Amino acid sequence: MIKLQHSASLNIIQPHELTINCIYLLHTMRFFYTSSSDVPNFPEFVAVGYVDDVQMGHYDINTRRAVPKQDWIKDAVGEEYVERVSARGRKHQLRFKAHLETLKQRFNQSGG
Known about the structure:
About 30% of the residues lie in helices and about 45% in strands.
């Protein structure tokens, strides 16, 4: 069994104006990508996005589609945006599968 996990963080500073001063709120966006091989009852690829530790979306190989996890996101973004994110998920899925195959070859594991 080989499991490859990658974590990426992106910090976003969003201006928020008050009546007198301007302050900045720090929001943290994180994406977690998990790719696996030969793990029973677990998808080969899963991507999950969080903003400020709240899950915003999910993608896995079984659905091959990004799924918004918050009602306000479902209302705010259109189908075109969901399709773009889904396409990005499929690209990540293929890239991670290639990484796993490379790791299997380098560590002389064909599976199991």
